[in-house]
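Input record (one chain):
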Amino acid sequence: QLNALLQDARQTIAKVDTVLKDVQGVTSNAREATENLGDLRADVESSLLKIDALITELNRKWPFAPKQKEVKLP
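The corresponding structure, as predicted from the sequence alone:
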């Protein structure tokens, strides 16, 4: 009976070990993902600045664009 309990404990420990290895993999992936977020944010910000510059250039060259950027109140 003691051998059966020890065998069951070994199997349970093996399952826990497998789960812990999976958790280590998940945390490693999460760490890599958070490191890449800074690069992604920089890329997105750079793209937004380029888009803003293009829109400004189009508004400047567009023949029907208003010449004055200010709104004059009466």
